[in-house]
Specification:
This protein has 381 residues and is an alpha/beta fold. The chain contains twelve helices and 13 strands. It folds into two domains: 163 residues, Collagenase (Catalytic Domain) (3-Layer(aba) Sandwich), CATH 3.40.390; 118 residues, Tetratricopeptide repeat domain (Serine Threonine Protein Phosphatase 5, Tetratricopeptide repeat, Alpha Horseshoe), CATH 1.25.40.10. The longest helix has 16 residues. The chain binds zinc ion (2 copies). One zinc ion binds next to helix 3. The site of one zinc ion has 8 residues, from helix 5.
Length: 381
């Protein structure tokens, strides 16, 4: 289930306008940052050379810059140090990300090197990369993607070392600088060059891209620092199109909360999932689409009472959402209490009334079959 994106329909204004289908997946402190753009820069008006002195000079005030606030919905990537990493490396990573991907980037608070202790393999004198990603997820930032730079040497499974690792579902990535420092025999090759490719590669994963072993793509796999030197430092056209498509789906500001809720549910950490779901609902108090997406996350994890409550909340926010009715029907049926089946039937009938496509959709067929079933039946929990 990890890494599976959840599609949901975002309904923006009381159900009259349906928005885009969004794919939702792990979480962020969903601060929507606003940036100020000066649309009309001040200009200096100079008299052209040779203009007639007979014309009385006019006092022309340059227009004051008009400040307009524009919501910036680009997803946020946060770069952090895990252990001692120079600020130049962090700034370099952020700059690289901003130059290549249409996201925002910030440098987050540094992590103490002891954060990695739980993932330390004393026999190998290395850090277990998968265990480290799991540890970083526990208190990750609320950005859509968190990428940590670290001087620690990392291995994964049977590989003796890796340059970096990322979780496509948790959207947490780590880049190890242990093996990419400057090669003094080749002064033309800088660590900055290697770090740029690694950061783009791992952030690409965290945004949902898989490997693409094309010599012209930064998503190719490189096994040695030397092969890294010959790697391209950008995505191929195909991967770029895929990235833009994914970023479009991930642009909802609640996406990061949803990712985090799903991450905890996958780990069986129901209380943590509830905590972050509550934060999301509090932060976006009118967003019915987000409530549905959270409900589906709990439904997928068979945490049915929470799912049912979330679909109910979505309907409270907007009573005419077919998805909320349909999924509430499915969740009620799955719970299977004596009184649930009749309510499931009502909700499914309402969903079809609002959007007849539910009658023929796969989940709709499931729900209608359930709604036709007679008598109490067993819960799937
Ligand atoms: Zn990779
Ligand atoms: Zn590619």
């Amino acid at each position: 289930m990890r890494g599976v994106d959840l599609k949901y329909r975002l309904v923006r204004d009381e159900g009259r306008t349906t928005g885009t289908l969004l794919a939702l997946g792990s979480l962020v402190r969903g601060a929507v940052l606003w940036f100020v753009t000066a649309l009309a820069p001040a200009v200096t008006l100079a008299a052209p050379a040779g203009s007639s002195p007979a014309v009385a000079p006019q006092s022309i005030e340059p227009p004051a810059p008009r400040r307009v606030t524009v919501p910036d919905h680009r997803p946020l990537v946060v770069v952090r140090a895990l252990g001692h990493v120079g600020p130049a490396h962090l700034r370099h990573a952020c700059r690289t990300i901003l130059e290549h991907y249409p996201v925002r980037c910030e440098i987050g608070p540094a992590r103490d090197v002891m954060t990695a202790r739980a993932a330390w393999n004393d026999r190998r004198r290395q850090v277990d990369g998968r265990a480290l990603l799991d540890r970083l997820f526990v208190d990750r930032t609320d950005a859509l993607v968190e990428v940590d730079l670290t001087p620690l040497d990392i291995y994964e499974g049977t590989r003796p070392y890796v340059f970096g690792l990322a979780s496509l579902s948790d959207r947490v990535a780590v880049v190890s600088l242990a093996r990419v420092t400057d090669d003094f025999r080749r002064p033309d090759v800088t660590s900055a060059n290697r770090i740029r490719k690694l950061v783009l590669h791992e952030v690409g994963h965290a945004l949902g891209l898989g490997h693409h072993d094309d010599p012209a793509c930064v998503m190719r796999q490189d096994g040695t620092p030397e092969s890294l030197d010959f790697a391209p430092d950008d995505l191929c056209d195909g991967c770029r199109r895929e990235l833009l498509r994914r970023l479009d789906l991930l642009a909802h500001p609640g996406q990061a909360y949803l990712d985090r809720v799903r991450g905890h549910l996958v780990r069986g950490e129901i209380e943590d999932a509830r905590f972050h779901a509550t934060r999301a609902l509090h932060r976006f108090p009118t967003d019915a689409g987000l409530a549905i997406a959270l409900g589906r996350a709990f439904l997928d994890a068979a945490v049915l009472n929470d799912a049912i409550s979330l679909f109910e909340l979505a309907l409270h926010r907007n009573p005419d959402l077919p998805e909320a009715h349909a999924y509430r029907a499915i969740a009620l049926d799955a719970r299977g209490r004596p009184e649930d089946l009749a309510r499931a039937r009502e909700h499914f009938a309402r969903a079809v009334e609002l959007d007849p496509r539910w009658a023929s959709s796969a989940r709709g067929r499931q729900a209608s079959a359930l709604a036709r079933a007679q008598g109490p039946h067993r819960s799937s929990r």
